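Chapter review: from sequence to fold.
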Amino acid sequence: MNSLNSQLQRISDCDTALCLFCNRQSRHLLIRNAFRLISRLGDGVFWYALMAALLWHDQAYALPAVLHMLAVALAGTLIYKLIKAKTLRPRPFNVHPAIICTGNALDQFSFPSGHTLHAASFSIIIVFYFPGLAWLVLPFAALVALSRPILGLHYPSDVLAGAALGASIAVASFWLV
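The C-alpha cell string follows.
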C-alpha cells in the first residue's frame, strides 16, 4: 500500500511540476494574451461559429454534423459536470500559491477540463464529416488543451482526462447515430 501511495504521490508531484512549468509561460504578455484568446474561443465561440459557418456554406449537408455536435455537447456537459461534482478537485491556483490564474474559471473545480473535453469531441466529429477541416480544428483543439494549464486553470492530468472523455464520447456517439 505504501508503494502505491508513493507512486501516486510521484504522479501528483509530476502533474504539479508540469502545471507550474506551463503556468510560468503565462508570465510573458504575448503568450498570456494569446492563450487567453484561445481559451475564450474554446468557451464555445469557435465551435458554434464553425457550426454556423458550416450551415451557411453547406446548408442541409452540414445539418447532420451540426446536430451531432450539439448532441455530443449536451452529453459532454452533463458528464463533466457530474464528474466535477463528484471529484471536487480544486483548481491548481487555489492549491499552489506559485500558480497564478491568468484566465477566467467557469466554475471552482478542476477535474476534468470541460474545454478540452469539448475540443476533443468536436474535433473528432468535424473531421469525420469534413476531413478537409482537420488542418483547422486539430491544432485549435491542441491549443485549447494547452491553454488550460498555461492559464493556471487545470492540471495536465485534468486536460488528459478531458481529452480522453471527449474522444470517448465522440466515438461512442457514432455507435448511436
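Two observations follow directly from the output. The mean pLDDT is 93. The CA atoms of residues 114 and 162 lie 6 Å apart.
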